[in-house]
Amino acid sequence: MEVHLIRRSAGTMMVGDHAGPFGPGNLCLIGPYLPHNWISHLDEDEVVHHRDAVLQFDQGRFLSAAGALPELDALRPLLEDAARGIEFSGRTALRGAKALEAIEGTFSLRRLAAVAELLGVLAESPESERRLLDSHGGTYRLDTAEAEVFNLALHHITEHLGERMLVSEVAEVVGLSRDAFSRLFARATGVGFSRTVIRMRVSEARRLLSGTDLPVSEICYRVGFTNLSNFNRQFRATTGTTPSAYRRIGRS
Q1: What secondary structure does DSSP assign to 130-194, as a single string?
Q2: Domain check: are 124 and 170 in the same one?
Q3: Are 159 and 127 part of one and the same domain?
Q4: Which of 95, 104, 141, 208 could form a disulfide with 33 if both were Cys (CB 3.0 to 4.6 A apart)?
């Protein structure tokens, strides 16, 4: 399992079949085998140092230890929900980020106590400050090589988001046949290639609507949609609102 904190930069977060914008302070708990990636939108040659803080731990060991330490059993619902990925917000995100940073430099029992403090903060978070990300919580189980290919594909899509996107062309970039690539993408996202690209385009549009004054029409074409009506339709299907309303809500 992984607790992931973004310290710097903004971009698109991919967790299972979820795609959405992220920024500094983004804090998530990711379950085993759940594909995930935080793709920063950077200028050419831009490098962000110390972008992330990450804690990895063995879920099974915590659940096994609950037999001897009943207090740990309180973590079970949190760890089970993490199969879908959990994004934290509000006070929980602030407290969780501080607890995660405090783990660095600790050892032995002090490290165990610091990890328990972090997981306690996350487990006690109110429902209003946690959001499940993946829509179905399936077991993806990509091996290391498959995960590398999938992440390479995501980076290629991000770099060429405003261009025409054909599954055969991206498959060729990552060295797979079209059929093998389509199967991998379906397993990695649960929704397949085309729907994933749409969600990534909508995610980038959300970021631009919130963070810039670009006209909606320009954002539409910048993120790869070829007409406004389709952009509005796909944006509403993904977010439940129109691009213009999304911008107004974000600024109210």
Answers
A1: EEE-SSS-------HHHHHHHHHHHHHHHHTTTS---HHHHHHHHT--HHHHHHHHHHHHSS-HH
A2: no
A3: no
A4: 141
